[in-house]
Each structure stands twice: as C-alpha cells, then as structure tokens.
Structure to design on (225 residues):
C-alpha cells in the first residue's frame, strides 16, 4: 500500500503496540521471585522480555532454562497469576483511543492480530473497553501457524473483508513485521514497544518506523483524512 493511499483496514499487534501491559508482567515476575526469597529485577529488563512470552518471562524470573524438569508447572503458575490480575493496570498507549475513534468516523475497520492466547487476549480487550471495539481479534487459537507466519494476518484481513495489500499492520517485534510483509501488508514498526536491548527496528525493514504511539496516531491520521 503506497504511503499516500487510504488504508481499507488497520491491524495492530496487542502487547507493546496497542496496549501497554508490561506493568502486569512486572508484577507477576516480582511476585514469583518474592515467594522464592529472590530480590527484585530491574523493571526495564522485564519490559524488554515481554515479547518472549510466558516461557521467556519465567526463564528471566527464575534464571532457568525452559528445558528443566518442572518448567511447565512454573509456566502454569505464571499464567495463573497473570490471569488473576489481567487488565488491572494495563492501559492503551497514548493517542490510540482517539485514533480508533477517527477510524470509526472514516468507516475504516480495525483488528488485532496477536500471539497472545485467546484466554488472555479476549478479556484484556474487554477490559480496555475500546470504542469502537475491534472488528476482529485473531489469536493463535484460530490458526495453525502463529506469527511470523502470515496466516493470522491473512485471516484477520479476510474477516475485515479487506485485501492484505490495502491494510496496515503495526507491531513492535521483528516477527510482526515479517508476518505483515509476508501477508502483503503495509508494515509499521512500533519502536516504542517491548524491544530487547540489542534489537534495532531499522533492521526489520518495515515500511515505516514510529518512535511513539503519538507519532503512529499522527501518521495514520494523515493517511485517512
């Protein structure tokens, strides 16, 4: 999609792109460490590991390898603790509620494509009470292959009745951009998201890089007006 064209749909990754959920993961990681008489970790180190999912966060929290005996039980402990306070402190990134309102005014549908399981993604989206609500939510539960495979993005475009090359996909991880590119979308790298210390969004070769959610809002607003 050329940068001067009006998109037919806007798709977002969830954690680190649409919603800042890091505070809740920080809470759970520190809780797991406290129960084991371990000191707290720097919050920045936890934020940068959010994109690694539950396994990565458990590994960080307890300095252990996913292959150790009992790791599945530790992961279940983490997920249960996360589920118990899901949506309690997470917040949409600044400006994005206004952007969604403007998409509504322009009759442009929006959706979410995430690697977060529906068990967590659906109640999180409900807790955020977006207005308008997402027209589509695609999680790993609905596809055979998660991102960076393009299947989930293609499914979301189908649900929104939009050609992929006329859609924007925004994400804060290399796999998001790869999935969007493979689907044929116009890709935007959210450099304000949960990037690891060694990650450089410029290397992802997205069509556009934004350094803040307000920059993202301004850019998409220019396309739809």
């Amino acid at each position: 999609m050329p940068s001067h064209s009006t998109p037919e749909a806007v798709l977002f990754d969830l954690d680190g792109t649409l919603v800042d959920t890091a505070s809740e993961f920080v809470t759970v990681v520190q809780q797991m460490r406290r129960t084991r008489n371990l000191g707290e970790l720097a919050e920045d180190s936890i934020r940068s590991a959010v994109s690694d999912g539950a396994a990565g966060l458990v590994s960080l929290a307890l300095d252990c390898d996913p292959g150790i005996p009992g790791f599945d039980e530790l992961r279940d402990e983490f997920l249960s603790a996360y589920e118990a306070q899901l949506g309690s402190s997470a917040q949409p990134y600044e400006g994005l509620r206004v952007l969604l309102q403007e998409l509504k005014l322009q009759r442009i549908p929006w959706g979410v494509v995430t690697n977060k399981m529906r068990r967590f993604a659906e109640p999180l989206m409900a807790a955020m009470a977006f207005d308008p609500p997402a027209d589509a939510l695609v999680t790993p539960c609905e596809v055979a292959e998660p991102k960076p495979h393009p299947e989930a993005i293609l499914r979301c475009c189908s649900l929104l009745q939009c050609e992929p090359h006329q859609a924007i996909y925004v994400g804060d991880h290399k796999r998001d951009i790869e999935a969007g590119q493979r689907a044929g979308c116009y890709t935007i790298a959210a450099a304000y998201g949960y990037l690891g210390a060694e990650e450089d969004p410029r290397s992802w070769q997205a069509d556009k890089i934004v350094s803040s959610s307000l920059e993202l809002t301004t850019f998409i607003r220019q396309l739809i007006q």
Summary: The CA atoms of residues 57 and 102 lie 35 Å apart.
